[in-house]
């Protein structure tokens, strides 16, 4: 802590130390679950796409074309999504919030030891009343601590981390699914419809698909005709 604080006045919690602990001990741990969530979205979208294409009445070449276009859209949006997620994680590396709950939680944790001691003092009497002298002595005991500045700062740092992370973790947990919805899932349908109606639906593309489709249909019909001829020959042989 002293190394991170440098020549800052040691009476106050060092923001540099606080920010460094947040980045190194907490934000880095959010990277893996964030990408795991993104991967689950991408896998679910790909599986849904496969089922949708397979259940369509389109001929084979058209199905393959739609799937190829959709796969390319997923890959393109995925690259942008990776950048967006990294930016979101980088923003969390600078601890910041306007949520007043952080201050309230920090002050609550600071006052809890004293309040607990006062409750214990009151519990020692039958009517819950204690003398002002006893209260004053207890307050002085908590205020006039013999702990070192490093110990005091370490305790304040722990309380500050707990208070801040209650807010930051909730914010980040909400932000990532919202980004995935807004920057990945919703644009996928928009971009896929656009490409299938414009650049992937030119005369040249449609002509190629029709040609491939006719070739596929002819091959299937030829196979069926051959099977019928073989069956007919076998029936004649039996008769």
From TrEMBL:
Domain GED residues, every copy: 154-239
Pfam family membership, one? Dynamin_M
Identify the domain of life.
Eukaryota
What is this protein's name? GED domain-containing protein
Whose protein is this, by species?
A: Saprolegnia parasitica (strain CBS 223.65)
């Amino acid at each position: 802590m002293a190394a991170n604080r440098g020549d800052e006045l040691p009476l106050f919690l060092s923001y540099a130390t606080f920010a460094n602990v947040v980045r190194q001990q907490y934000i880095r741990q959010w990277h893996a679950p964030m990408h795991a969530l993104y991967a689950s979205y991408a896998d679910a979208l790909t599986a849904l796409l496969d089922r949708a294409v397979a259940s369509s009445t389109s001929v084979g070449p058209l199905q393959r074309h739609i799937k190829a276009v959709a796969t390319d859209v997923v890959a393109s949006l995925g690259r942008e999504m990776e950048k967006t997620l990294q930016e979101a994680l980088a923003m969390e590396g600078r601890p910041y919030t306007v949520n007043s709950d952080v201050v309230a939680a920090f002050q609550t944790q600071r006052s809890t030891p004293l309040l607990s001691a006062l409750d214990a003092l009151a519990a020692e009497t039958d009517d819950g009343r204690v003398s002002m002298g006893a209260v004053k002595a207890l307050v002085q005991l908590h205020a006039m601590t013999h702990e070192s500045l490093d110990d005091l700062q370490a305790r304040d740092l722990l309380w500050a981390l707990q208070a801040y992370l209650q807010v930051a973790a909730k914010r980040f947990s909400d932000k990532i699914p919202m980004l995935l919805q807004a920057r990945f899932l919703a644009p996928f349908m928009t971009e896929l419809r656009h490409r299938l109606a414009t650049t992937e639906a030119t005369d040249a593309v449609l002509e190629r698909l029709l040609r491939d489709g006719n070739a596929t249909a002819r091959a299937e019909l030829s196979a069926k005709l051959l099977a019928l001829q073989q069956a007919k020959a076998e029936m004649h042989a039996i008769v």
